[in-house]
Amino acid sequence: MNNHFEENVYCLISELKQFDYKIESIDHIWDIIFPHNTNRNTAYHYIRVTKYQDTYYIAHIDGKLRSLEIRLNTSVQAASSFGSSHHHGDLAVGWKDLIFSARKWLKIVQKDWIKANKQVWLSYPINRRYGIVCNSLVRESLTDMYRIDKELGKAKIKKFIKLVEQGDVRDYRSGILPSMTANDYFEYCKIAYISGQKKDDHVDESLSGRQMYERYADGRHEGLLEIAGNSKEEFADWIDCKHPKKTTGGHPWEIKRGGNTTHIDLSVSRPRYDKEGFVIGLRGGSFSRLKETICMFLGIHEAGLPITIDNPEGIRKRILGQDNIGIVPCFDSLHRANQHFDEHDSVYDVMYYDDLGRYKSRIRPFITWEPLPILKG
Asked: What is the rounded radius of gyration, in angstroms, for the C-alpha atoms of the chain?
């Protein structure tokens, strides 16, 4: 590898020691956003330098360059995502000019860090930032976007919102049964499958609840299908992990298959404050499963059975467009990107700024942007 390039990297690390850093666990972290001039054009780049014990890592946050692993004055090599490292081609080809620009920027920051950071905050592209904006503003503009309110229809919306505002849904006691059997649970499942079915589900309504569970659930039932269906005692022992048929590591409550964030659970648990009775609850808040989950809840409730649903106030917000849409940088994946935002931000769905298309100027004044990192010497 180019010795001059390595020396440049070592100098960047040494110069960074004069700047403030943040702490995450035992890591020291410097975030650097800086201008980089190429062919008379100026582009901004975002790199992160992380010190873990005696090793440094440099990541190209808003780009595609392979991360670097540095042992000061010893080696510069490509960092493996699995924790080990190895040489990976000529890293200098991509990193050389960026390292030079980053070092040049550190000198500018040292002279006047407030002025330098102001330049970054004004110049760093909007589509590379995180922000939040009220859902109702977005869906009023982007008429083709998926709308849970239109999918549900006015009648179901009215019923669900009334239940939330009455307060019963948010009280876990509304989902308590004093006793329960496996067959009781499968009956819940049958109502859920029929009530929540989509046009392409083709649920066979002639099947029993147990048969439906066998056909449509995840399959890793932890012994639930092997206990006596009509025994209250066996179900209680199974829930309390006392039954010999009870296993672990499965997904017994995953009644509709999906990924880690896109399945639907119909779970049974003991009440929080005592060990008598059972709480039955629905969870399926992903963008693609929320309609099914709400319809399941309404079907079970209309059958006169105790039931709760996860985060009812949040679902009400989503139906009415009172939640927020998360704006995600163009270089990030949208998968699980809502987890970047604070719970109090009420962000359930995300999009890219560029997806606003011709409505950017209309919606931009309403976007609250997340602060960019401050670099201070």
From this structure: 27
